[in-house]
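Thread title: Can someone regenerate the structure for this chain?

I was given the following input by a collaborator and told the matching structure tokens would be attached. They weren't. Posting the sequence so someone can regenerate them.
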Amino acid sequence: MRKKKKIESLKESFGKLKGDDFHFDLIERYFRNKDNSDSFQVLSDKTCNDLDFEELFMFLDRTTSKIGQQCLYNRLRIIPNDSTSIDIKEKLIQKFSVDTDFRIRTQLQLDKLSKNDVFHISSLFQEEHAKPPKWFFVIRLLSFTSLLSLIMLPINPKLFFVFLGVFIVNIGFHFWNKRNLYKYLGSIPQLLKLNSVANNLHKDYLLKKIDPDLLNSIRIINQVRNRMSFFRLEANLQSESEVIFWGILELLKITFLIEPLLLFGVLHRLDSKRKEIENIFCFVGEIDILISTASLRSGLERFCMPVINDAEISATQVYHPLIPTCIPNSINVSDKSILLTGSNMSGKTTFIRTIGLNIITGLTINTCFADSMTFPRLRIYSAIRISDDLLNNKSYYFEEVLTIKKMIYNSSNGKPNLFLLDEIFKGTNTIERISSGKAVLSLLSKNQNIVFVSTHDIELTDMLSDEYELYHFSEIVKENNVDFDYKLKEGKLKNRNAIRILQINDYPNNLIDEAITISEKLDKITVANN
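Best answer:
Regenerated them for you:
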């Protein structure tokens, strides 16, 4: 009955958002400890914050196991160097999408790895293991003494006092080791489950294609299976509170110091099997990612698989997946970068984020939220959400300066980059903002880089017209309200409605009149200077 309910739950949840809690401190652990230096790019925390990465992850994540969740997080943070094995992966995604029985069989295996303890498996191949102290030979000596005195007890009853003395000393060593044991009481039993799940999944001829040589890793881990089984027994006893059996077992463990001897013996063996553990971890995680992607696509009204080219960005009816009833837009970027103008809340920043996150999902899970998308393999950098760093005594402007400095440094790294900026240098005065902004944006757009930037400074549209295509978002000001259509339009913004918006919000008439007078004077000065 329990299995039947689980099957119904898996069928019902396909294509839908997860209702689970997201423990990002645990989900991130595999990514934080993994060496991804050989990838095309590791997305920075700054860029992820700018693009609302955690919210995006919660939307994309349809995994069943905690391993799948950790691998999906890592996948989305890493821009790969190429798209190897994409055909095999797409065939499996299609298979999971149409073959419900195949998918459910696979998910039932993955569900065995759904407990939070599974998050700690990665520590077995990523983190330094506990080492036995230099005096560890004393534990072996005490264990041997307990065994010898117990065997010789019928011959010499006085050895009971030796046995009792050693037992009392052993109590201290036994509980000293508990801290080490508890550290691995979750990960080692779950590694046994992982190995079993991987073995079952690898029997399928389609899943086997993900890693044809995985059986070798499974066999190597099986060499330590018997010793690791002790930790599974310990974990179950602790959770089920089987007091009598636990008490007897605890006495035996104290008598012969079984726990420290087994623990450090297993850790020594696992230390030389890190690669094999990671192979199995990644195999299971990859399968879960593919099912997650199939589920994601199943729940979307529209999506596409991107075309990776060498030059242009082209998007047809692209939208932001986190915004309900988001208005889609289309754009083509070839020789020039993109400069967006428009008032606040008109859609500029959302559109910039839309382009950024669609390129990320396209390059990582081969899925874009659009009718069609084409783009190069790009490194992505952003300066969208910037705030004061009061703890380090840094102002908004200084934080922005440092962020854009990194962009300038990366703009000549020999590979194409995508720079996403929102209202550049808005933390300083108008004259210096415009002059500095123009110089920076001209520099960033060179070397095959593509820039998407929004601005309120109309002056920049004239200064950058040779290097940037101009687009804008606009609002419709009616008698008593303001409406936004969120549609991308070609050219620069010509209508200015800021003062009109103040007016319909019942600002004093004398204030409105003064603002209009000053605006007209400034316009005349600008025309005269031009």
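The two ends are 80 Å apart (CA to CA).
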